[in-house]
Amino acid sequence: MPKQGMEPIRRKALIEATIRAIHSEGYCKVTIGAIAREAKVSTGLAHHYFGSKEQLLSATMRELYRQLGRDVREQLAGARTPMERVSAIVRANLSTGQFRPEVVSAWLAFYMQAQTEPAAQHLLALYHSRMQSNLAHALGRMLPRPLAREIARDTGAMIDGYYLRRALGRPEAATEAAVARIEAFVARSVSDTETLA
């Protein structure tokens, strides 16, 4: 019988191993057995906890999503102005922890899974909706709601784009450079809108 209290530790080890294994081997090639070996647990235990590779990836993404939520809240805690709030959201999404190559690989695998699996589609929609809502709320303190939502949508698309470029190893996707470009885009968009008003 497994020791009580070991399940959370083993689940966490399997989630961390999933991130590493997807990055090193790719989602299509990696097996739940390889992930279990990386986590130093048996394949049977991995199946017992998660059922399948797809369910393990979903659990991994839920954990990454929770971590991102914590990062966003921490960054927002020090933000005072609407622009500082936008920057905080961008910085949280592109933070060192979220923008590590292996985490980016896991997100890209999840995007692929979301094309065909309803549970993954739901979680991805939740992620996009939360980011859009946070950005639109901050921008809505400076702009009319429709414009705030439009700039929030474009800002989210830029964040997604930098994830893709990071996965491809593009130098322009370095964290600080990406954050600076997105902040400049938002500042220009707000300024252009205010000029037209």
UniProtKB/TrEMBL annotation:
Q: Which domain of life is it from?
A: Bacteria
> What Gene3D superfamilies has UniProt attached to this entry?
Tetracycline Repressor, domain 2
Gene Ontology process terms (BP): glycine betaine biosynthetic process from choline; negative regulation of DNA-templated transcription
Name the keywords, alphabetized.
DNA-binding, Repressor, Transcription, Transcription regulation
HTH tetR-type domain location is 8-68
InterPro entries associated with the record: BetI_C, DNA-bd_HTH_TetR-type_CS, Homeodomain-like_sf, HTH-type_TetR-like_transc_reg, HTH_TetR, Tet_transcr_reg_TetR-rel_C_sf, Tscrpt_rep_BetI
Q: Which residues bind DNA?
A: 31-50
Query: Which pathway does it take part in?
Result: Amine and polyamine biosynthesis; betaine biosynthesis via choline pathway [regulation]
The Gene Ontology terms for molecular function here are:
DNA-binding transcription factor activity; transcription cis-regulatory region binding
Q: Tell me which SUPFAM superfamilies the record gives.
A: Homeodomain-like, Tetracyclin repressor-like, C-terminal domain
Does the entry feature the keyword Repressor, yes or no?
yes
NCBIfam families annotated for this entry?
A: betaine_BetI, PRK00767.1
The protein's role, per its UniProt record: Repressor involved in choline regulation of the bet genes. Repressor involved in the biosynthesis of the osmoprotectant glycine betaine. It represses transcription of the choline transporter BetT and the genes of BetAB involved in the synthesis of glycine betaine.
Show the PANTHER family listed in the entry.
Answer: HTH-TYPE TRANSCRIPTIONAL REGULATOR BETI (PTHR30055:SF234), HTH-TYPE TRANSCRIPTIONAL REGULATOR RUTR (PTHR30055)
User: Per its record, how is this protein called by name?
Assistant: HTH-type transcriptional regulator BetI
Q: Which organism is it from?
A: Paroceanicella profunda
